[in-house]
Design goal:
Layout (H helix, E strand, L loop, with lengths): L1 E3 L24 E4 L7 E8 L7 E10 L4 E2 L7 H4 L2 E2 L21 E10 L12 H9 L2 E11 L2
Antiparallel strand pairs: 1-2, 2-5, 3-4, 3-7, 4-6, 7-8
């Protein structure tokens, strides 16, 4: 499985529009080469370079199996696109873009798409990104990773 973004390539800088210094909207993402048996997807975004340990920026889940992309800003219209979102380390549901501490250096942001063998994850309404990831991993058929960077 492959995960891409028309906004940035793997290992490249994430444009400011998708960060806390810009519009803080979710970037456009698309995927292909989905494994047979996929019933849904979970999309995770985290920053392993955060000073206190990995910071969770987004968990979108129950993404319908027929989808092959999320448009720019999809997190702001999750219901319309047919998926749910978890509570981030910013303590709110939805997408929270890159926002590393000033002068902390370049941070890597891992966007991870998991193809799942179940249509729905068994998580509560206010599940954290960590809970969603833990549950999703028990049903994962495949994983694709796209890494973007950002620095302030």
């Amino acid at each position: 499985m492959r995960l891409n973004s028309p906004a940035f390539s793997n290992g490249a800088a994430i444009p400011q529009a998708y960060t806390c210094d810009g519009q803080d909207i979710s970037p456009p993402l698309d995927w292909r080469e989905v494994p047979k048996g996929t019933q849904s997807f979970a999309l995770l975004c985290d920053d392993p370079d955060a000073p206190g340990g990995t910071w969770h920026h987004w968990a979108a889940y129950d993404i319908p199996a027929g989808m092959t992309a999320l448009p720019q800003g999809a997190a702001q219209e999750a219901d319309r696109h047919g998926f749910k979102q978890g509570v981030t380390d910013f303590e709110r549901s939805g997408y929270g873009g890159p926002c590393p501490p000033h002068r902390h250096g370049r941070h890597r942001y891992h966007f991870r798409l998991l193809a799942l063998s179940v249509e729905r994850l068994a998580v509560g309404k206010k599940a954290s990104c960590r809970e969603i990831e833990h549950n999703a991993r028990t049903h994962a058929l495949s994983e694709a990773v796209l890494v973007g960077t950002y620095e302030r």
